[in-house]
Design a protein that fits this description.
With 549 residues, the chain is an all-alpha fold. The chain has 3 domains: 4-51 and 311-338, no CATH class; 69-96 and 158-302 and 343-545, MFS general substrate transporter like domains (Growth Hormone, Chain: A), CATH 1.20.1250.20; 103-142, no CATH class. 66% of the residues lie in helices and 3% in strands. It contains 27 helices and 5 strands. It has helices spanning 17-22, 29-35, 43-46, 56-64, 69-78, 82-89, 91-95, 108-116, 126-130, 150-153, 161-186, 191-210, 215-241, 249-273, 277-292, 302-307, 311-324, 345-354, 356-380, 383-386, 390-406, 408-434, 447-473, 479-500, 503-506, 509-528, 542-545; strands spanning 4-6, 53-55, 103-105, 140-142, 335-338. It has a 3-stranded mixed beta sheet with strand order 1-5-2.
């Protein structure tokens, strides 16, 4: 591997070739500045080395190698946008909730049907409401515990349920587009600029959605929200991951994704206590705003600066980061070593062909993203069909989501990332088989619900580990693009989730859970063909992938 070692201690220019040879291995910072403007490095530049050199990985390990209260707070605050990610995703679930058992007759026709019913306790059901030609506000009204609902306002029930599923899925369609747009931007404009722009787009569209007066405008706004939301999260995750030392990345991932589960529980509680669906949108907008503010103060990724050959900015970013986590370190005497890599988005795309390992690895990971996302979101949009209590079902799912992230710690320690993911997939598949059993544990809890919850938790653990797995296997020069490619495949799975959950009402549940089991087996087989990144440094360029096993 050809290495360019940069010594910035001296700021004087070398005036002739002979003096360059005498100071072999030392590249003056003024020379580096000249190369900051996308100037191509020469072979002579690439052959220079430095005494006492350090890689970006070594410097990050020195600064943040040991967890402190300040480094933990840095991750929590910097990634606080995560509290709004699941809240934004499931907004329509809680803003559009309705109960097919909570309605009453307001017409003679409806009352006559009630009087002719042989079993009045079974009259107030979905079957009666959707198969008796009853009209909303003419023959019946939803009581819905005094809650407003966009599903009621816009007729998204009974035959309108597919439109509700489309509304829920529109945020994932937007996320897919967002990933495609953000993919080249993360590695060209930087993690910070693109992430903040995506966050602002999310905030604006969520506030506007709270004022929406019709279904079609809401679909557009949710689509645009999706464009920003997932691109923003992928950006902030990639951004902070690049500040994190190798042995702390699993902990960083768990802290980051715990905010997702907490946000999930938050929107469930808000949905329970707040009766007006528009107010739910405004409250979650506030959470989104609070998560966006810290992004303005977090320094740009030093790895991104190095990928652009901007040494001085990379060192300034590291110094600022070290101050934030209470471990100030001067970079003046540090000789950063890195491999220069000419980069633009066309070159990045070409690299998938030039370096087959990069292309194959990305393809395999993208499939796992898609399948695990599909399963996870199928349950999160379908708990109302599995659980007997809507809000309690989602509360269990939210707590299960948080626990699933912390399950990663012992599994990762005992088995490593690769075997850990396979272990989670085995448990998930087995749980889906158990869920086929029709048995009531209590009046409010069934074997199906319990087994589904376990399967959901382990597939969520797999999905969270897939994010870190992808980040550690992918070279820095292509990390933003690969995250977006995999994320876009994940959004395909997410988009399908709200439709897949309809299988619970169309097919025998044993067939549905059988399909889920097969999907987990496929994911497990794919993971066996990938490299285990446990304990290894993250590669900086595609060329380094060929030198690791």
């Amino acid at each position: 591997m050809t290495v360019l070692a940069l010594n910035t201690k001296s700021e004087e220019k070398v005036e002739n070739a002979s003096s360059k040879k005498e100071s072999i291995g030392v590249v003056i910072e003024n020379e580096v500045a000249e190369k900051d403007h996308h100037e191509k490095f020469t072979e002579e530049d690439q052959e220079k080395v430095t005494i006492g050199q350090k890689t970006i990985e070594e410097v990050v390990n020195e600064i943040a190698g040991k967890p402190t209260i300040w480094s933990i707070l840095f991750v929590i605050v910097a990634m606080s946008y995560g509290f709004s990610v699941d809240s934004l995703t499931y907004l329509t679930v809680f803003a559009g909730t309705l109960s097919y058992e909570k309605w009453e007759c307001v017409s003679t026709l409806c009352t006559k049907l009630l009087n002719n019913s042989t079993d009045k306790t079974d009259f107030y059901t979905r079957n009666t409401l959707c198969n008796s030609n009853l009209k909303l506000n003419e023959d019946f009204i939803f009581t819905n515990d005094g809650r407003t609902s966009l599903a009621v306002d816009w007729g998204l029930f009974c035959d309108g349920e597919p439109k509700m599923s489309f509304l829920s899925s529109s945020i994932f369609a937007g996320a897919y587009v967002g990933f495609l747009v953000a993919s080249p931007l993360f590695d060209t404009l930087g993690r910070k600029k693109v992430t903040i722009g995506a966050a602002i787009l999310t905030l604006i569209t969520t506030i506007a959605a709270g004022f929406s007066q019709n279904y079609y405008l809401m679909v557009v706004l949710r689509f645009l929200c999706g464009v920003g939301k997932n691109a923003c999260w992928m950006g902030i995750y990639c951004w902070i991951l690049e500040f994190t030392p190798a042995r702390m990345r699993i902990f960083m991932t768990i802290l980051a994704y715990t905010s997702h589960g907490t946000g999930f529980l938050l929107v469930d509680m808000i949905g329970y206590y707040v009766k007006d669906w528009r107010h739910i949108f405004f409250i979650i907008s506030t959470v989104t705003f609070l998560g966006t503010v810290p992004m303005f103060f977090v320094p740009e990724s030093p790895r991104f600066f190095l990928s652009k050959n901007k040494l001085s900015k990379a060192k300034a970013s590291l110094e600022r980061f070290s101050r934030y986590i209470g471990s100030p370190k001067s970079m003046a005497e540090v000789n950063l070593v890195f491999t220069p890599h000419k980069q633009n988005w066309l070159k990045q795309i070409k690299d998938f062909y030039v370096y087959p390992k990069l292309g194959i690895q990305t393809m395999l990971l993208a499939i796992v993203w898609m399948l695990t996302c599909a399963l996870s979101y199928t349950f999160n949009f379908g708990w109302s069909k599995i659980s007997k209590d809507f809000y309690m079902g989602y509360a269990f799912a939210a707590v299960g989501t948080i626990l699933s992230y912390y399950l990663i710690i012992p599994v990762n320690i005992l088995l490593g990332k690769k075997r850990g993911m396979i272990c989670f997939l085995v448990i998930s598949g087995f749980s889906y088989c158990i869920a086929m059993i029709d048995y009531n544990i209590s009046l409010d809890f069934t074997i199906e619900h319990l087994a589904s919850l376990v399967g959901f938790m382990t597939i969520t653990s797999t999905y969270a580990m897939t994010n870190q797995y992808t980040g550690e296997l992918t070279p820095t020069s292509h990390r933003g693009m690969v995250f977006c490619i995999c994320g876009s495949f994940g959004r395909i799975g997410s988009f399908l989730g709200p439709y897949i959950q309809l299988l619970f009402t169309i097919l025998d549940k044993r067939i549905t859970f059988g399909i889920f089991t097969v999907v987990t087996i496929i994911c497990g087989i794919i993971i066996t063909f990938t490299r285990d990144p446990t304990g290894k440094d993250m590669p900086e360029t595609p060329a380094e992938l060929g030198k690791v096993k």
